[in-house]
Design brief:
Length: 516
Amino acid sequence: MSPPRIPKIPRWFLLLTALVTGAVVMALEILGSRLLAPVFGSSLFVWGALIGVILAAMSSGYAFGGWISDRYTDGRVLAALLLFSGAWTFLIAWANQPILFEIEKVVQDPRLGPCLAATILLAPPAFGLSGVLPAMLRLAVADMNHLGRQTGRMIALSTVGSLAGTWGTAFFLLSWLGSHSLVAWLGGIQVGLGILWLAKGTSTSRLIVLIVLGCCSLLGATALHPIERLKVPIHQEESPYQQVRIREDDLFRYLVLDRTFHATMWKADPTYLFLPYSQMMVSSLALTPQPRRGLILGHGGGSIAKWLAKHWPTLELDVIEFDPVVVQMAEEFFDYHPPVNHHVFVKDGRAFLNATEQTYDLMWIDAFARDMIPFHLTTAEFYSLVRTRLNPDGVLAVNLASSSKEGDLARAAAVVQTLRQSFPALLTFAVEGPWRTSMTPAKNLIFFGGRPIEAEPAAEIETRISEMAQSHRLPMESIALLGTRRTEPWPAGVVLTDDFAPYDLLLGRERSPLAE
């Protein structure tokens, strides 16, 4: 039996395929972080799972591509690999949400869950795209005297494509198209390239090509109508850092970042502090005499800043938020319009404190979500810096989401141990949320620190908060919240430092409330 006729493949087409496949595989890796974030968060474990799974898939894909291209020496291998990876990418765009939520139900481990999710969703297309490179080399190296040149050129172009896919996706495409649309586009690019290889690089009949094209078109149509497990938001946007969604019901509007609710606004009175933890946070105003300037790290929907603008209009306020889209959402959807004495800075909180010489009477740190912990804002070095930016009688208030689970308690103990390196005396309140859910009882731990806490007994501090609330300068609810003060001692915890901050190891795992 004679071998199949091998059509002559233009060299530019081979090089273009190397460039495109290199770009697509890295774009999928970047996109994977956005697909997994609403369910598993964006922790170090998630990124480790993504990188490890993609590398394993690429390694096995290279080996398989080399083996199969020696058995079939025409363009059929390339066409099959590209069509397979493109079809799987269409399936990702169509069904990623139900798959991810089912995996999270079954696998609670913070390492294994993201690994399994990345394996099911992203390993197959990464495997197929990686197998393309050795198959192309097999076709390209007709002249053994130029083997090194051809191999080097092909690998270089594939790497340039990977660079373009990484930067293009991270810097531009995610913000322009959004994650789901971009996944569908990547599937279309792979399928289109596979169809071209099937038509031009093999002797396949035109009828078969049309049948394959029709099947892939049906898959592409499903990718444009994904199965939604998350409630449809009134607005959704991809920021450089996270997926930002705005949801609402008859009474409230919510800011959701990745998998975590970050702000709740009562639509009937947008300045009202609905969440009990924020009512407790602002009660720190009673602890420092005549506060003149405050700082908020972590803007969210601008709830605290809005309330301060209305009830403490003379307080000069600096608001620090690292995500420009969050700042935009606070203005467009949560009615925060900064007055002239409020200054909003789009910058990392620690970088801002390093750069400024300004000192503050009050500092509110509200930058910690349950699954998104910026470790550099948890270390002893950071809180030492915070202390230097507080005035002598200044007060620090820190919000930390927690629960009764072992992992959350260990995390809280670590934060307390670390805070005490710069704030020896702490006042702690364990404030429950306004809603009861099926999750383990969730609480916000509010820590107050500073010289007033170190110098005055807790009973006197509580009296001052009650008196200020009765004079309507604090939320009246803060009086009842004083009963949530934690009196039992904290167990010893890990001191977190810039050199050693195993914060992800202390994460507690909860089922995502977004699926409810």
